[in-house]
Specification:
The complex is a heterodimer of chains A (295) and B (294). By secondary structure, chain A is of the alpha/beta class. Chain A is built from ten helices and 13 strands. Helices cover 35% and strands 25% of the residues of chain A. Chain A has a six-stranded mixed beta sheet, sandwiched between helices. In chain A, strands 11-12-10-13 form a four-stranded antiparallel beta sheet. In chain A, α4 packs across α5. Chain B has 294 residues and is mainly alpha-helical. Classes of the chains: A alpha/beta (295), B mainly alpha (294).
């Protein structure tokens, strides 16, 4: 793959092994300013990729450059981290901390040493995620969604140039998710935002680019529109599940939405979504997952 | 419900007018000082130091063992528990913390500097005792009269150093021993080690064994006890050994997460401090008397 101009993230032949398992296998990618969505089934390698972008995990093989720097060099890694915001997939909190104190502690770790400026910044990011009124509350008394927003707030400290978010919308209600999209799309004007998610509607609403990872390799890399277009003519409605369809489910209207490589000649074709295209892309694996859920 | 608001992402400059380590150390020191267990122990130490010493002068009682034991226990052993908990308290947010500019050795150094909080209190308590002794000499008994003034002062300084060594060891364990019960095992080992070093062993080797524990008592029994004895070794030279032990614990803690040249440098410090510790222990064993039954 050719490098994009002004690339802030560049992976060349990046492989990450855990014992004999290859979580990532020779991945080539570049990313620049904007919001990029990362899709893939569980165990596809998304979190491994994000942990590398967050400098907490090094590639076993290959070359990784972030913001023009080499994170394998300790000094350059520190420089990358000065411009990095990272929200891990699972995040706990130190006991006894309030939302304000936790974000303040993270700001200290991010070298915000001037107390007044730091407190202003903590208030700003808590305001961004809608937690200002709950700032003094202990984190353990907050709901899961509120804690997730506190975790997100620490990632937003200092308007990072590289924002790495692993399932940021987990636990958020629809209104909060919609609001979060506003925050992230604004961040994407100046920064490289990479988010992994299972919420395909978030990708459709927010991302300019989508990368689908499966089995440690990149299965799709392109615009959201192109991904959706790849499913054109392969999604249809019927009164019953169509034999041979890759995926099929009963919708709220009572009709069945079918996704498959070949629609019947008389099928009532409908506009595909990101999810349809994603299911088609992953093929049998997605069908197996759906069958497993149905069982 | 509070909604997340799209916000003007005005570029905010990072303010680094002060050393990140200093700010982080202050942050950790406040966390240490506010820890409930530390607050209880600090209160007990303050009360005990004042009351025991006041009673000694008022009643002309000989100095009891608690004089050096209480700071070692309250600031040293309990400080170990507090420091361990503070070190481990951020583990749940570890993944996010690993992605910040302050690397693990910096965060460890901040925790180590926070250990000056219990040390200050222990040092204050012991300074109070030493100054009082020199201003107004008291009646000695319970074996204390066997030791020189310098020896007694050194014992009090060692007790103050326990208030630093315990917490530093707590940070070290917090970095390397990440399993439930680690502090319990550590405290049991330390207490058992201190008790076992009181075994009557009248030789230079016995001196070394007696002084090897991070905290030691120098008198066995009391005036009413027929087995009253003064343990062997030099309390003054042993201070060098204790300082080296604290250095070893600090460097070992810093080694966790250290990479490249930092790791190599710390490795050299570890070897150097190990040699210094052994050297001081040998000198303290050879220069002091062996076990004396009083």
């Amino acid at each position: 793959m050719t490098a994009r101009p002004n690339a802030t993230v560049a992976l060349t032949g990046v492989t990450r092994r855990y014992g004999s398992t290859r979580a990532l296998d020779g991945v080539d990618l570049t990313m620049s300013t904007g919001v990029t969505g990362l899709l893939g089934p569980n165990g596809a390698g998304k979190t491994t990729l994000l942990r590398m972008l967050a400098t907490v995990l090094a590639p076993t093989d290959g070359r990784l450059r972030l913001l023009g720097l080499d994170p394998s060099d300790p000094a350059e890694r520190t420089d990358v981290r000065r411009s990095l915001g990272y929200l891990p997939q699972e995040m706990g909190f130190p006991s006894g901390f309030s939302a304000f104190r936790f974000v303040d502690y993270m700001a200290v770790l991010k070298e915000w040493t001037d107390r007044d400026a730091r407190h202003d910044e903590v208030r700003r990011v808590l305001d961004m995620v809608g937690l200002r009124d709950l700032a003094a509350k202990r984190l353990r008394t907050l709901s899961g969604g509120q804690r997730r927003r506190a975790a997100l707030a620490q990632a937003l400290i200092g308007d990072p140039r590289l924002l790495v978010l692993d399932e940021p919308t987990t636990g958020l209600d629809p209104e909060q998710r919609a609001s979060l999209r506003g925050v992230l799309s604004a961040a994407g004007h100046d920064a490289t935002v990479v988010l992994a998610t299972h919420q395909t509607e978030d990708v459709a609403a927010l991302c300019e680019r989508v990368i689908v990872v499966d089995g440690g390799t990149v299965r799709w890399d392109g615009t959201v529109q192109d991904l959706v277009a790849s499913a054109q003519g392969r999604v249809w409605l019927a009164d019953a599940p169509t034999p041979g369809a890759q995926s099929s489910w009963r919708t709220g209207t009572g009709r069945h939405r079918n996704v498959g490589t070949a629609a019947p000649p008389d099928a009532e074709l409908v506009e595909p979504t990101v999810e349809d295209a994603y299911l088609l892309l992953l093929g049998d694996r997605a069908a197996a997952a759906q069958a497993e859920v149905a069982a | 419900m509070t909604a997340i608001t799209a916000h003007d992402t005005a570029v905010v400059e990072r303010h680094t007018t002060r050393s990140p380590l200093a700010v982080l150390a202050r942050y950790e020191a406040i966390r240490f000082a506010r820890h409930p267990l530390f607050l209880i122990c600090a209160g007990l130490l303050a009360y005990g130091s004042y009351q025991v010493h006041a009673d000694m002068y008022a009643n002309e009682d000989p100095a009891p063992l608690e004089l050096s034991l209480s700071p070692a226990f309250l600031m040293g052993l309990m400080g170990l528990v507090v420091a361990y908990r503070l070190t481990r308290s951020t583990r749940r947010a570890q993944e996010a913390i690993e992605g910040v500019p302050a690397d693990e050795p910096t965060r460890t150094a901040a925790l180590l500097l926070a250990c000056l909080v219990p040390f200050s209190l222990a040092a204050l308590a012991m300074a109070h005792v030493i100054i009082a002794w020199h201003v107004e000499p008291m009646s000695w008994g319970n074996g204390w009269d066997y030791f020189s003034s310098a020896d007694r002062d050194a014992m009090m300084v060692a007790a103050a150093l326990a208030g630093l060594g315990g917490p530093v060891l707590g940070v070290c364990l917090g970095r390397w021993w990440r399993w439930p019960g680690a502090t319990l095992l550590a405290t049991v080992v330390l207490v058992a080690w201190s008790i076992l070093t009181l075994a009557p062993w009248d030789s230079r080797l016995g001196n070394a064994w007696h002084m090897s524990s991070p905290f030691v008592l120098w008198i066995t029994g009391s005036d009413s006890d027929p087995d009253l004895g003064a343990m062997g070794g030099s309390p003054v030279w042993r201070l060098g050994y204790v300082v080296a032990l604290i250095g070893l614990a600090a460097v070992t803690a810093l080694l966790h997460g250290a990479t490249g040249r930092t790791r190599e440098t710390l490795g050299r410090w570890l070897v150097g401090l190990g040699i210094v510790a052994v050297a001081f222990l040998v000198v303290a064993s050879l220069t002091g008397p062996t076990l004396v039954m009083l």
